Amino acid sequence: MSRAIGDRYLKPVVSAEPEISFTERDPEDECLIIASDGLWDVISSELACEMARECLREGHSEALAAIDLNGSPQTEDEGIGAMYPTKGLMATALLTRLALGRQSSDNISVIVVDLKRS
């Protein structure tokens, strides 16, 4: 689904009709990754799932602590929990940074939903 304002020449190729699909969930599903082409064009589903799974299982590891959406280093005064209050948000940030690092040429939107969070 997309929208265009002021781009009449794109009207034939831009659709306001959403693409809807239904997927039966398995009780063992760990997470749901909702993302735009900006992610999927440069990262495989398998890699995205593995990275999200590791973030959700491991949480605030040192390797993930260095990732900041703005690319700025974290100071000692800032706790990783303040920057990423949930493991899902940390997974979102990591996948976004990876897509940027792989030179994605499209807009990048990522949401990681932790399906096991109690």
TrEMBL record:
GO molecular function: protein serine/threonine phosphatase activity
Pfam families from the UniProt entry: PP2C
Domain PPM-type phosphatase intervals: 1-115
Entries under PANTHER family matching the protein: PROTEIN PHOSPHATASE
Name of the protein in question: PPM-type phosphatase domain-containing protein
Species in which this protein is naturally found: Acer negundo
